[in-house]
Amino acid sequence: MVLPFVPFPEDPSPLPSNPPVGEVSWTLPPTILTRFHWLTVFGNAHPVELEIGAGDGSFLIQYAARHPERNFLGIERLLGRLRKIDRKARRQGLSNVRGLRLEASYVLRWMIPPGSLTAVHVYFPDPWPKRRHWKRRLVNAEFPQLAALSLLPGGVVYLRTDHVEYAAQMVEVFEAAQQFTRCEAPAELLDVVTDFEADFRRQGIQTIQSAWRLAG
Q1: In this structure, is residue 29 part of a structural domain?
Q2: 26 lies in a domain?
Q3: Which residue range forms the structural domain that includes residue 116?
Q4: Quick check: 172 pLDDT over 90?
Q5: pLDDT tens digits, residue range 44-89?
Q6: Does the annotation count 126 as an active-site position?
Q7: What's this model's pTM, rounded to 2 decimal places?
């Protein structure tokens, strides 16, 4: 199985597009001006979940392996990390994982079909701790609206961070978005620990999590 990948336009070295004989390749849209067609991307009509900032796939691969009845798209800006996700997915024979290298807000606004995701996962995004950098944070005042655009009614945004102030901002912006209500994350989901989270636990740093359900 070859993990599809869309590089930035200036990237000179995309992942191979031709799979070895006997393996399956699903190709993501060749242009960033095209919305995804999930049946084409995954080859089935299973529910689709999105992870923003997938890193090296520590959450994505574990959770996809537990849920073959769901499809997962991971967005990650670093090419080396996407290659790790690719290798892990191939080793485990996961046909329900896809990867994309692109800006998350652009993907949510212009590439995800409206009302098509069952969940959005955002785990340990960069907190940009200096006040002058807060405008760079992923989960900002605009983010709930972008998530609402992409989610099915009843879909959920799952958040985790180790940064107390950023956690408070996450709660603030979602409470201000009237179409979301706070809900409980399933214990089975919380049991899937990212590499960042495992490191933080060893250091005695608490994970702060919240979940927000879209009305519908």
Answers
A1: no
A2: no
A3: 38-214
A4: yes
A5: 999 999 999 999 899 999 999 999 999 999 999 888 898 999 999 9
A6: yes
A7: 0.85
- For residue 13, being part of any structural domain is answered with no
Q: How many domains does the chain have?
A: 1
Widest Cα–Cα separation across the chain: 52
User: Of the residues 11, 126, 191, 199, which is catalytic?
Assistant: 126
- Give the CATH number of the domain where residue 115 resides: 3.40.50.150
The amino acid sitting at 170 is: M
Note the pLDDT tens digit of each residue in 115-142.
999 999 999 998 777 778 778 899 999 9
Q: Would 30 be classed as within a structural domain?
A: no
- For the cut 60, the answer to whether the pLDDT of residue 19 exceeds it is no
